[in-house]
Amino acid sequence: MKRTNKRIIWLTVAIAAMMLLFSVSVFAISKGDIDTDKTVTPADARFALRIAVGLPKGTSTDGKNTPIEFTEVEKDIADMDGDFEITPADARVILRIAVGLETPTPYYEYRLLNPPTCLDQGMNLRTNTEAPFDTYYQYLPALGHDFSELKYVTKAATCYAPGFGTYKCVRCTLTEDKEVIVPHEWSEATCISPKRCLNAGCTAVDGSPLGHTTRLGYCSRCGQYQEVLYDYYNKGIRTPLNDAVKAMQDAKTKMTLIHSDDITNKTVTLDNVIPFYKTAYNYYYAAYKACDGYPEFKELEKQIYGICQELLKIVYSGKTTAENYNNQFYNWLEITNDVIGSRNVELKKITDTFKSPTENGGSGSAVG
């Protein structure tokens, strides 16, 4: 009877031991394999160097950029020389293993004997798989409470005043009363509205409206037709440009007639055509000044400036004489044809982008 009882006792102890053995978490990691991906790489060496200089493993991705610290197991894996201190020398050893200059060290087996809790530390048992007597207990720090689960609200919060709520620890049953903060939730600003808080009952605004893009015609941001800006362009820029083209054409007609009548004796000068060019210049210059301060008119402003400089060559060319008559005439004609032809064509390419909804194909004039 006694022998039977002893057998039952030993059998019970054996079963309990087996249950304890299988109840603990067991994992094996190679020395130096800090990221536990089953191989030692230069990334592990970088991790070891971060540990050596006191940098965290990384930061959280929840928008708060909370530092993620290395665990005690990760630090243990990085301790290549077993001096319980991680230094750049350990990182160099890991790097040599990664590039094949050094033989990997044996695997270490970790058994989680007691998992850490919010208040109590846990414990690992580390064993060298090639030297079973090379073992030691590794204490794992307590996790601390994490009161991030809102159980219920006792006082509702607004954007202007905090409320109160009961928060539960995500790992245990402990609760804690804390302030409930409701930050502003901003809408995107628009052309006519600043950022506004979307939370119910909140009237907060932030910043100023973006304003319509200064592209005349339609706003490139909201698509709304900008009649006021277009009217400014139409009166301040396009009208004087069209008047300038007409004055240039009148100047060419007058100059050609004079040259035809005076082709033989050259007694009549071209000087009485200059007022036509002055008029054209004044129109172009008015349009040039109207472009100032509007970013979308920078290229148009540059093109008109070039035309004004060409016309000044005629306006300040000096008195026409019999000796310089032909040179004067052909120089002016070349400038005139260039302005009426290619230069105004370039202007039209730019001004065609500024149209009202009713101008589907443009006005058909040289510049708009």
Percentage of residues in DSSP E strands: 15-25%
Count every helix, treating DSSP H or I runs of 4 or more residues as helices: 8
At CATH's second level, what is the architecture of the largest domain?
Answer: Orthogonal Bundle
Mean pLDDT: 82
CATH topology of the largest domain: Type 1 dockerin domain
* Domain module tally: 3
DSSP E strands, number: 13
Identify the overall geometry.
elongated
Helix content: 40-55%
Widest β-sheet, arrangement of strands: 1-4-5-6
**Low-confidence region ranges:** 13-23, 361-366
Q: Short description, anyone?
A:
The chain is of the alpha+beta class and about 375 residues long.
How would you describe this protein?
- This protein has 368 residues and is an alpha+beta fold.
- It folds into three domains: 2-140, Type 1 dockerin domain, CATH 1.10.1330; 149-180, no CATH class; 227-351.
- It is 41% helix and 17% strand.
- The chain contains eight helices and 13 strands.
- β5 (122-128) and β6 (131-140) form a beta hairpin.
- α5 (227-261) runs antiparallel to α8 (325-351), α6 (274-291) runs antiparallel to α7 and α7 runs antiparallel to α8 (325-351).
- The longest helix has 35 residues, at 227-261.
- It is elongated, with a radius of gyration of 43 Å.
- The N and C termini lie far apart (118 Å).
